[in-house]
Design goal:
The chain is α/β, with parallel strands linked by helices. It folds into two domains: 238 residues, Aspartate Aminotransferase, domain 2; 102 residues, Aspartate Aminotransferase, domain 1 (Alpha-Beta Complex), CATH 3.90.1150.10. The chain has nine helices and 14 strands. Strands 2-10-9-8-5-3-4 form a seven-stranded mixed sheet, sandwiched between helices. Strands 11-12-14 form a three-stranded antiparallel sheet, with helices on one face. A two-stranded parallel ribbon has the order 1-13. The longest helix is centred in the C-terminal third of the chain and has 22 residues. The protein is globular, with a radius of gyration of 21 Å. It starts with a strand and ends with a helix. It binds pyridoxal-5'-phosphate.
Length: 357
């Protein structure tokens, strides 16, 4: 098989060795002559997987003692609703910084059990920047933001300045760089952007948050339910948790956050330098707000589109098509994408310029 340079925005590329081990586990898990997906989630073998997955998150992100780590279901999209349920306090009012389609969807959910207040938005410019100067009123229970805007290619470089409890959707940049978990009350992230296959969602929640909501919460949406049962209140998505655990083992073995952050910076510098240098392309996001995970750019001359698209196919570059709401191209450079793949893309853009500029 020819090597594919996989720029998929999600589900994402994972390390080759993770695919191999995950495949083995489906055929014969831990030499039990049983598949991982046909054995009890209460078996010692699986309980160990869940425990190791949660421990690895704590270790890799330096999660303080007063936080719980949970692997749940429903995707980040259910997280929009769950976070609002669990964070509502006396004001029954959540604040939202709307920097993209996902943030907008999150803001919508809070209105189901309280109020949703838009603190700032970059929709006026099709979400191509991160709002900087805005007032945050004090009648809010929490402030929600999306650390990385997967579709539009922008990323928060600093935390919003507020004393409110911070809630963050980190679906597309968790484990890509150092974070200070203590600054947040609640972090959530769908696995399939930077950690594993679709099917599980990671929650990192301050213990104080559990049981402190001012609104009644249905059992399955209450983080306290899941924390009381160590993420095993009901049948967990065993394959998604196992494969995420393998990716976290890989990350730890390869130098953890410090190492991966350096590589991610290197990959981002390579692609953005080329976008800025190359006369045929331009970036679509505000320069200071550019994402290190999803780099969005476009051809200056749309007439060259079919030529560039076929050049991508010839170079085995897959998944570069931009989201329909932005157009152009998007290079998603998650943790498992090798620097080599970015070099191949940059080289291709150079050759393209030599030929068509
Ligand atoms: C993909 C994505 C989501 C949606 O995730 P699902 O798991 O499909 O619900 C939410 N937020 C961000 C930032 C995303 O990138």
């Amino acid at each position: 098989m020819n090597k594919v340079h996989n720029y998929s925005a999600g589900p994402c590329i994972l390390p080759e060795e993770v695919f191999q081990e995950a495949a083995n586990s489906v055929l014969n898990f831990n030499n039990k002559n049983l598949s991982l997906i046909e054995m009890s989630h209460r078996s010692v073998d699986f309980v160990e997987v869940m425990d190791e997955a949660r421990e690895l998150v704590k270790e890799i992100l330096n999660v303080p003692e007063n936080y719980e780590v949970l692997f749940l279901q429903g995707g980040a999209s259910l997280g929009f609703l769950m976070t609002a349920y669990n964070m509502m306090r006396k004001n029954k009012n959540g604040g939202y910084i709307v920097t993209g389609a996902w943030a907008k969807k999150a803001a919508k959910e809070a209105a189901f059990m309280g109020k949703s207040s838009i603190i700032a938005s970059s929709e006026d410019k099709n979400f191509n920047y991160i709002p900087k100067n805005y007032e945050i009123s004090n009648n809010l229970d929490y402030l929600h933001f999306t650390s990385n805007n997967t579709i539009f290619g922008t990323q928060f470089k600093e935390l919003p300045k507020t004393d409110l409890p911070l809630v963050c959707d980190m679906s597309s940049d968790i484990f890509s760089k150092k974070i200070d978990v203590a600054k947040y009350d609640l972090i959530y992230a769908g696995a399939q952007k930077n950690m594993g296959p679709a099917g599980t969602t990671l929650y990192i929640v301050k213990k104080d948050v559990l049981g402190a909501s001012s609104v009644p919460i249905p059992t399955m949406l209450d983080l306290k339910t899941h924390s009381a049962k160590d993420s095993m209140f009901n049948t967990p998505p065993v394959f998604a948790v196992y494969t995420s655990m393998l990716t976290l083992r890989w990350l730890k073995k390869n130098g953890g956050i410090k190492h991966i952050e350096a590589l991610n910076n290197e990959k981002a510098a390579l692609i953005y330098n080329e976008i800025d240098r190359n006369s045929l392309f331009q970036g679509t996001a505000n320069i200071v707000d550019r994402s290190n995970m999803n780099s969005t750019f476009a051809l200056n001359n749309e007439n060259l589109k079919s030529e560039f698209d076929s050049a991508l196919v010839s170079a085995n570059i897959s998944g570069l098509k931009g989201h329909r709401s932005v157009g152009g191209y998007r290079a998603s450079m998650y943790n498992a994408l090798p620097v080599e793949s970015v070099k191949v893309l940059v080289e291709l853009m150079k050759e393209f310029e030599n030929k068509f500029a």
